[in-house]
């Protein structure tokens, strides 16, 4: 990619981020949930299009309107990929708040941030998740707690799964995958190690087109379950879906 083309893409991203800031500041405080979800979906799709990321729904189960979503975590793109199809209130690690502009946008869109190791804050956030679920909204989080390598799933932390039990809502696992033109894992999306947000953004903007696949899997009943059982069942379901995707690519 030429420097001029990269500069043009960066300019488009910047303008789109500014538009998102304006929407969050001027529209979201007074918007209904329906309008907020519509704006979030449209804005996320536009951001991904600028980044040359095409989102598609993989075969699976219908997405529930009222549920606790959990997904494997690969990239900073994950939040926007899910929001482009199924807008959610997200629970995410506190580091995301420090991302340039996107961190503020995520916060303004209702994302709840968790500081690692802060048990008192975790309990407070847990009560907030239950309250939002009881209001009929969809909440999502990444139970691995950090980004992992594509094709694999790190052990799920079970603490927040209890929110589905207390709110008596279903838990819906979602498998995320980023594919290249040949159907293999798209390595430009990897966000591990010492890679910064800016490094990742530039790599994606300079890279080949990305196919982001979202597979909503069969819901798991939260009422009457145990959080560790729910966490393990969700982890197994997502890993099986990713293994199936890898088999299809072979």
From TrEMBL:
Gene Ontology MF terms? acyltransferase activity
| Residue ranges occupied by any Phospholipid/glycerol acyltransferase domain in the UniProt entry | 67-179
Which Pfam families does the entry mention?
Answer: Acyltransferase
Name the UniProt key words of this record, in alphabetical order. Answer: Acyltransferase, Lipid biosynthesis, Lipid metabolism, Transferase
Output the CDD domains linked to this UniProt entry. LPLAT_AGPAT-like
Under the heading InterPro entries, the entry gives: Plipid/glycerol_acylTrfase
Q: In which pathway does it act?
A: Lipid metabolism
The name this protein goes by in its record: Lysophospholipid acyltransferase family protein
Q: Which organism is it from?
A: Massilia suwonensis
């Amino acid at each position: 990619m030429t420097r001029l083309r990269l500069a043009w893409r960066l300019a488009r991203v910047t303008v789109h981020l500014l538009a998102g800031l304006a929407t969050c500041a001027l529209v979201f405080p007074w918007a209904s949930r329906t309008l907020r979800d519509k704006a979030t979906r449209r804005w996320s799709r536009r951001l991904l299009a600028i980044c040359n990321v095409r989102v598609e729904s993989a075969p699976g189960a219908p997405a529930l309107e009222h549920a606790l979503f959990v997904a494997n975590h690969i990239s900073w793109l994950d939040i926007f990929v899910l929001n482009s199809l199924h807008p959610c209130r997200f629970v995410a690690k506190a580091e995301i708040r420090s991302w340039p502009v996107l961190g503020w946008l995520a916060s303004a869109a209702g994302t709840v941030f968790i500081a690692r190791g802060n048990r008192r804050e975790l309990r407070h956030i847990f009560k907030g998740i239950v309250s939002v679920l009881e209001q009929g909204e969809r909440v999502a989080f990444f139970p691995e707690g950090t980004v992992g390598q594509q094709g694999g799933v790190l052990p799920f932390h079970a603490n927040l799964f209890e929110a589905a039990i207390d709110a008596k809502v279903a838990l819906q696992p979602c498998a995320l995958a980023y594919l290249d033109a040949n159907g293999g894992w798209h390595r430009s999306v990897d966000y591990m190690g010492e890679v910064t947000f800016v490094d990742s953004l530039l790599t994606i903007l300079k890279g080949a087109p990305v196919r982001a696949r979202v597979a909503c899997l069969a819901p798991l009943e939260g009422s009457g379950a145990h959080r560790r059982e729910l966490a393990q069942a969700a982890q197994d379901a997502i890993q099986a879906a990713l293994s199936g995707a890898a088999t299809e690519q072979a």
